[in-house]
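Run log, item B.
One chain of 447 residues. Sequence copied directly from the ordering sheet:
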Amino acid sequence: MTTLTIAIIVVFVLGYACIALESVTKVNKAAIALLMFVGCWTLFMIDPGQYISTAIGDQTALAVSEVIEKHLGSTSTTLFFLMGAMTIVELVDQNGGFNFVRDTLQTKSKKALLWRIAFMTFILSAILDNLTTSIVMIMILRKLVSDKNDRLIYAALVVIAANSGGAFSPIGDVTTIMLWNKGLVTAAGVITEIFIPSLISMVVPAWILSLQLKGELTFTAKQAQTVQASLLTERQRKVIFFLGVGGLIFVPIFKSITHLPPFVGILLVLGILWTVTEIFYGNLKEKEEKGAMQKRVTNMLSRIDMSTILFFLGILMAVACLETIGVLTALGKGLDVAFEGNHYLVTGIIGVLSSIVDNVPLVAGCMGMYPVAAIGDMAVDGIFWQLLAYCAGVGGSMLIIGSAAGVVVMGLEKITFGWYMKKITWVAFVGYILGIISYWIIRTYLF
């Protein structure tokens, strides 16, 4: 290993450490990720010839440019998908499309509410994404549960259910989106074979947590306030909801029919929804136009969390540099030798690591470590890639900082790291392990 390679690795590791310690450093992880991206590739340019055989003399700049553009093109497909999906969900939410969720959760029983929250979160996170679903569910919980201790248990279950629901859906989690965009898993494959393990990883913790809840709620869901969208009629709000959510469900079907990248399908849905909402708001009276502007797509675009998008750009491009210099391939071979090619152990460990550090760079690293094979466990929809989708998604539930859903719930409900680790970590771990065992049974005896 050359000195330059070691320097690139050091920059990446230091950046990774700063991202993991964001709560301590108080520096946004997007800023660190961008510095990692630029730092790694700047060091790479000192002597690109040792990594790219065509980087000689006058051809150096052209060769490096082609390599970077190739990785940037692959990364951009994920970024455009996320931007489109975030805009669609924001538009549906701002126009009262999620009011039905509140109505569905109406009950006085604490245990009944827990199971309704669990399954509703599980289903919604597969259709939308685990981060957005967590925000929606916590906002609803605040109106349904007044007792702080009870609400912490519900909130912890939201994290577990959101991560489990996102793992079996090609559009439910950023890591699954990455694997799907890269063609390592198919929508049909990940849904049919990861659904049962994901369901088990949610149901078992939900059952354990339900034992801690007894009695009835002090007030019912009928007291919850509905998200107001008075500028549109009830029928128009339903049209927006079904176009938005139905469109997200249609994206995998669109990909299988046209063979176009998933981000093209998400932009199709956004374009249709944008056109429909413009027509709806264009017919309003002049005095209503000011309020209408707040709920149009042009305003929704400004509400996208660009720091998240830039974080993914920085981290994925930094990982791409490690892939280019051959570090990830060497690491992948080392893991195979250490664990004798046991993909259940390798992915299981990756899942545990994803609860400590961000699962996005972990999955991006694995995508660079292992080549796709024509047949076997490393083929498209092979055991390794499907287990990676499950473990990276569900494993993040073991710590409150292990997933985007956990971090946002931690902030909204002021959950402490210590409380979650003491009360919830072992519960999530039990569900995680049982899910892996169920996947082994499915692959060994059913497929």
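Observations after the first pass:
- Residues 220-229 have pLDDT under 50 and may be disordered.
- The two ends are 42 Å apart (CA to CA).
Flagged for discussion on Thursday.
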